[in-house]
Amino acid sequence: MRNLGFRKGLTLLELLVTISLTTLLSSLVISYGHVGRQQVSLYVEASKVAQLILRAKALAVTTYNQPIVPCGYGVEVDYARGVYTLFSYDVPNCNVIALTGINSVNKTPLTSVSVQAGLMLQLGLDSLRDVLFLPPNPTTLVSTDSSGAIGSRPGKVYLQTPNASANATIVVTQTGEVSF
What does the pLDDT average to over 127-140? Predict the structure, then answer.
């Protein structure tokens, strides 16, 4: 008969199973942490873009009653360089901007922001090139065309991670609503 007493320690098989389960769980936690960091940085960047667009809108409203003001304020998105810029816009006749479009010659850059490392601006058919807010309402002019022509549809800023595992979209409508 065998002795059914207590054994001292683990068998080799039990030890290997424990080590493999620990390795599997730790690799899942590490990979989830990396994806989580990418998503957080993506949403922070989307928030910064939306905040800059709303700042341009606020500038158009708050400077309306001042003696010397530009025609409006806006944001330009440069997809090739990965930069978005807050600008003031001034032309001799502010009433013709909707007809002539947004010309880069009349822009005065105020603030430029580069997209965070590890993220990129993605160009699409309805990608926002320029948005311009004209006081006092403010009237919103959205350009999705590289020529600066004013369009009749919302503009979208697409942000994504380099491997396209996560993305965010900021939408600006003709009524000046900004959502993401």
Answer: 92
Confidence of residue 1 (pLDDT cuts 50, 70, 90): low
Domain 14-179 is classified in which CATH homologous superfamily?
Answer: minor pseudopilin epsh domain (3.55.40.10)
Residue 42 CA, chain-centre distance (Å), reads: 7
For residues 64 and 135, the answer to whether their CB atoms sit within 8 Å is yes
Does 121 score more than 80 pLDDT?
A: yes
Q: Counting beta carbons within 10 angstroms of the beta carbon of residue 151, is it exposed (0 to 12), middle (13 to 18) or buried (19 or more)?
A: middle
Alpha-carbon gap, residue 45 to 57, rounded angstroms: 19
With cut-offs at 50, 70 and 90, classify the pLDDT of residue 2.
low
Res 40 pLDDT > 90 = no
Separation of alpha carbons 150 and 142, rounded Å: 6
Contact in structure between 174 and 133 (CB atoms under 8 Å): no
d(CA 62, CA 134): 11
d(CA 107, CA 155) in angstroms, rounded, equals: 19
Residue given tokens 């304020």 in the structure block: 73
